[in-house]
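STRUCTURE REQUEST FORM
Protein name: AP-1 complex subunit gamma
Source organism: Capra hircus
Requested output: structure tokens
Priority: standard
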Amino acid sequence: MVASSLKLQDLIQEIREAKTQAQEREVIQKECAHIRASFRDGDPLHSHRQLAKLLYVHMLGYPAHFGQMECLKLIASPRFTDKRVGYLGAMLLLDERQDAHLLITNSIKNDLSQGIEAVQGLALCTLSAMGSAEMCRDLALEVEKLLLQPSPYVRKKAVLTAVHMIRKVPELSDIFLPPCAQLLHERHHGILLGTVTLITELCERSPAALQHFRKVVPQLVHTLRTLVMTGCSIEHSVSGVSDPFLQVQILRLLRILGRNHEESSETMNDLLAQVATNTDTSRNAGNAVLFETVLTIMDIRSAAGLRVLAVNILGRFLLNSDRNIRYVALTSLLKLVQSDHSAVQRHRPTVVECLWEPDASLSRRALELSLALVNSSNVRAMTQELQGFLESCPPDLRPDCASGILLAAERFAPTKRWHIDTILRVLTTAGTYVRDDAVANLIQLIGGAQELHAYSVRRLYSALAEDISQQPLVQVAAWCIGEYGDLLLEGTCEETEPLQVEKEEVLALLERVLQSQMSLPATRGYALTALMKLSTRLHGDNNRICQVMSIYGSCQDVELQQRAVEYNALFRKYDHLRAAVLEKMPLVERGGPQVDEEAKESKEVAQLSEAAPVPTETQASKLLDLLDLLDGPSENAQHPPPLDPTPGDTLIHLLDLPCAPLPPAPIPNLKVFEREGLQLNLSFVRPPGTPTLLLITVTATNTSGGDVTHFICQAAVPKSFQLQLQAPSGDTVPAQGGLPMTQLLRILNPNKAPLRLKLRLTYDHFGQSVQEIFEVNNLPVETWQ
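Status: completed
Returned output:
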């Protein structure tokens, strides 16, 4: 034995008194040398003291692996003082990655069968902390015997060890099923809490256990009702709430047992109503119980009134002064907005108030929920609130807020004018934060609303005259001024205030955009093209426009230079063609984002057939020629067969009329995922009018014997693509080939690059939570070429 070795208290004091890191390392290195020497000498009386000092050194972050074998020796010692430090060292220094941990299996097995409570408790704690799958298989029977020991101390430790074993080796569940039913009658709260946790783990990992424990739902309901109505001893009360930890765990188990099971859900409905109405909400413990109650109500097949009560509880949470509780409420309401939309709508004013929270996470969650609450009946009021928030929200929230307002306006716009006004206000407030397709969407919207051309160009001209820093707004305004500049000068719009604009003012404004340092190259391209269009829209001398084109004919930007050179050529060489080349764009018919193009075309053709049936071949040929003029020449266009004048067949022949080149062959479906009866298939459609758009329908079917619940499909594409996920048809895929779940993905591929898709699936199946992430690289070539 080394005489100069320090005691543990002296070592701690000397380390704390070290002035520098170097002094601390010197003290520890010196003491570790003494500890090594003591281990080599094999001093049996003081080895536990040396190991205790080594464990303190390990807790400070210094290497202590050389003490692993000493832990095994102390565990095998008959002295309790040695076993206590030995087991503590095993929990700190050993883990599954080291083979040495298997050497203590026999020592733990012997200690579990000794009958000494303190030693059994040490062995069970060590096994539950670092027991590997091999150790769990070897010692499962010993732990199962201890579950019914008379000592509450040992039973509680054994239950917690069984939880660890189930998590490590789920197939051991059959061993622990029989004792659990007896342990549910325990009055000891610690044992009962551990038993409920053990049953929860068994049900989540074994369908057989889930079916087995549904029989004990009445007993669990009785236990929870006793806790809520009669209370318990003071030692288990937290802020006046009877053992909230046990209540929360029982509610979590009831949620698992009642999911997709009508009888169990019916049994617990009255109890859940009692818990929801009798729990004190003035303390955080009561709020925890209430929140778990809400989750249980929403996950089981509860009554409609009970679900409304749960939503109202979350609404009260929104008024709580604790930010964490408000965040939990917003997150939960966001999950419920799809299934209980009308109930969540009642709390819309409170949700909107949360937008102005100083906490960024609360404000973001409130924004997501507010956007989810927008529908056709409240779109005006909600959009006004969101636009007010957009003006003062933090910069990191502006992209999400602006994009959300634009999507909501696109889906639920009551009129085209309101839609245009909404987008203009967003572009004026946060134009630099909108998505890339906002400019194209607004141009398409304005182009398709012929009655609003004069109104739109005047609004955009006024906005552009006030601010040229918002690039998307400048681009749209330049396009509209170039396209409808004649309406701007006419002054015939009755929907806006009188605006007197001269030609020179319009040209000066566009030149200002061209010369501004804030203008992007794309914006300058819009302004240059607008000037060129005005040469045919506005009457008078075009010398000023010609001078601008000449100046930009030597611009350093290649794109602008090419445009200017081509426009100069139109003036000098092809002036007789300039008016025809620069004529106005044709009207663009545009539907909402949910409109299916094929159904829309069929509807238009049906209306055409009802209004003007075409009975002869000559009329059909004339119609074909007209469509060819609109769509461009087609050398391979085939004339339709003579139409039968029978009214009943007119629609069929009109649908067969080749108004464009022959449609491409249908894209084959693709199966991308299959596991335990759950299958995921992708079907593809490319709308004829927008070849860069791909519509992918994700269809999930389930042929297994259990429902797939909480199903969420998320997708990601490379940065060169634009992806929009529509809301799924549900979050449950019924068993036995029931109604499939579908979800629509809209992918914009402007560069027609090869498409790669990454999918992440999360769902619950047979009591287990599953997450799958995989990449789909074998998409058909027709999806992107």
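Reviewer notes: Residues 408-581 form a domain with the Serine Threonine Protein Phosphatase 5, Tetratricopeptide repeat fold (CATH 1.25.40). The beta strands are 237-238, 241-242, 670-675, 678-685, 693-702, 708-716, 722-725, 741-748, 757-765, 768-776.
Form closed.
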